[in-house]
Design goal:
- The protein is of the alpha+beta class.
- It has 2 domains: about 5-120 and about 280-305, Aminopeptidase, CATH 3.40.630; about 125-255, Gcn5-related N-acetyltransferase (GNAT) (Aminopeptidase), CATH 3.40.630.
- Helix content is about 35%, strand content about 30%.
- The chain has helices spanning about 5-15, 70-85, 105-110, 130-135, 140-145, 160-175, 180-195, 240-250, 265-270, 290-305; strands spanning about 20-25, 30-40, 45-50, 60-65, 95, 115-125, 150-155, 195-205, 210-215, 220-230, 255-260, 275-285.
- Strands 1, 2, 3, 4, 5, 6, 7, 8, 9, 10, 11 and 12 form a 12-stranded mixed sheet that branches.
- Strand 1 and strand 2 form a beta hairpin.
- Helix 1 (about 5-15) runs antiparallel to helix 7 (about 180-195) and helix 5 (about 140-145) packs across helix 8 (about 240-250).
- The termini are far apart.
């Protein structure tokens, strides 16, 4: 089970809006699939989205499969997954990004859901930092060496610098902030309380922020959760320096570092520069009949108006 399935994590990113599909046997929970619910911003329609909450890159069923032969465990896994799907509340749109460790999505397919592959980037072993360093591209190492004497890396006690960096990044990209900054602050407090993460920032001699990121971890893997840079200082190398510090900090705790992926080509290229490999994970979606009819009716109305 990753930290993204922990109740305290869900309380931070979806307060009052999450629950779990569960399966019980002899009074004990043998399977659970957390979900978060929120309204979808579709004009003229009151639709409900169910699945992975914001600021939660991966979520997956937590299953107690017991011991036994592979054929027995797989049959049990299928039964538990089918029961979890039956226990989900009603939804108009379902969207889960499953943890890379979860690959058996056949019961979801049999229920009429759709699946597609996405990619994260992973360093499988960060315990040997010399090997990680030498596995990086020459360009990435050069950027880090250049940034090191100019910038100081701090472990922050709040998210102010991170919020500034993210706001600047999304404004430069012309994209809205994908989560409220209050949620970012609440999550930071939660991970610090559970010794499961931290915020790193890079500042210069004038104490100006150049970039910041949030790093989180569980028992087996560390994750680069989110980060950004101040637009006018984005060429200082702060992001590469911060990522290298995050990897070194992760190496003190876990063997695996997960860059948490991106389907954006430039971001993927940046992650590859650290010597990471692409790692597939599943994105599973589904739509209700009500949503399909509603969207079709809305689109038809728009088309008719356009012709008049």
């Amino acid at each position: 089970m990753s930290l993204f399935s922990e109740h305290w994590w869900l309380d931070a990113v979806a307060p009052g809006r999450w629950g779990e599909a569960t399966v019980r046997s002899d009074g004990e929970v043998t399977a659970r699939l957390p979900w978060a619910r929120e309204r979808m911003p579709v004009r003229g329609l009151h639709l409900t989205r169910l699945g992975s909450p914001r600021l939660t890159p991966f979520l997956a069923p937590v299953l107690e499969l017991g011991s036994g032969k592979q054929v027995t465990r797989l049959a049990r896994e299928h039964r538990l997954l089918e029961a979890l799907l039956d226990d989900l509340p009603p939804f108009d749109y379902l969207s889960y990004t499953f943890h890379p460790s979860f690959t058996n999505w056949l019961p979801f397919y049999w229920k009429g859901l759709n699946g597609s592959l996405r990619a994260t980037y992973v360093l499988d072993d960060v315990t040997d930092l010399d090997a990680v360093w030498h596995g990086m591209s020459d360009t990435t190492r050069r950027v880090i060496r250049t940034a090191e004497p100019m910038l100081q890396v701090n472990e922050d006690h709040d998210t102010e610098r991170l919020a500034d960096a993210l706001t600047s990044t999304f404004a430069r990209q012309g994209r809205p902030m994908p989560f409220p900054l209050e949620m970012l602050a609440a999550l930071h407090r939660a991970v610090r309380e559970h010794d499961a993460g931290t915020v790193l920032s890079a500042t210069d001699e004038l104490d100006r922020t150049h970039g910041a990121l949030m790093l989180v971890w569980d028992e087996g893997r560390a994750y680069y959760l989110t980060g950004g840079g101040i637009t006018e200082r984005r060429r200082s190398g702060a992001q590469s320096l911060l990522m290298w510090h995050a990897i070194r900090l992760a190496a003190e705790r876990v063997p695996v570092f997960d860059f948490e992926g991106s389907m954006i080509e430039g971001v993927a290229r940046f992650f590859r520069g650290f010597g990471s490999r692409p790692c597939p994970y599943l994105h599973v979606t589904g739509t209700s009949r009500r949503m399909r009819i509603g969207l079709a009716a809305r689109d038809l109305g728009k088309a008719l108006l356009a012709r008049t």
